[in-house]
Amino acid sequence: MAYDRYLAICNPLRYMLIMNKTMCIWLAAASWSISFMNALPHTVLMSRLSYCGSHTINHFFCDITALMKLSCSSTHVIETITYIVGALVGVIPFLLIITSYIMIISTVLKIRSSDGRYKAFSTCGSHITVVILFYGMICSTYMRPTSMYSIDANKLSSLLYIAVSPLCNPIIYSLKNEDFKRILRKATNRV
Fold first, then answer.
1. Three-state SS across the chain?
2. Spatial contact of 134 and 161, defined as CB atoms under 8 Å apart
3. Which end of the chain is less packed: N or C, by CB atoms within 10 Å?
4. Helix 114-142 × helix 165-174 angle, to 10°
């Protein structure tokens, strides 16, 4: 989506040429492939751990950190791979998104009309809000040492990025819609 916004604002005349059906399919396929490749090493390494004692996962889904806590084997390799893969699959895309927004902001600041700047910023504002929410929650959940791990804090942060962030998406993206704003104003004026 950041690439889409970048093209729409920084290269509007070439947008339709570049962002065609083939490009959309390629971007979706790349995203799915990277997600699969991200899960594969964790799944393989977790399946090789020994589990002793309780086999009850103290979490509301089968989270990697909760599984590592149950293991009586060393989880050092998995932790290291989590950080490496987290950097590759998490930090690099985040930096690319931030870079695209820096380029967008520099382009938007060159727009002479304040209406044009407002429209461009409002187009991107909702996406960057969702990105910051999602990446912030992911990093606070998975990019910390096991010594700082707390099952209750992990449950809360997992809930935030799994449930709250997706629930916020429709609200955040709807705030751009004029009809939604009008209905919201009307509803708040009645109260």
1. CHHHHHHHHHCCCCHHHHCCHHHHHHHHHHHHHHHHHHHHHHHHHHHCCCECCCCCCCCCCCCHHHHHHHECCCCHHHHHHHHHHHHHHHHHHHHHHHHHHHHHHHHHCCCCCHHHHHHHHHHHHHHHHHHHHHHHHHHHHHCCCHHHCCHHHHHHHHHHHHHHHHHHHHHHHHCCCHHHHHHHHHHHHHC
2. yes
3. C
4. 180
Q: How many CB atoms lie within 10 A of CB 64?
A: 19
Gap between the Cα atoms of 94 and 91, Å rounded: 5
pTM value?
Answer: 0.67
What does the block give as tokens for 186? 């009307």
Nearest-angstrom CA–CA distance, 191 and 183: 13
CA dihedral (155, 133, 170, 175) positive or negative? positive
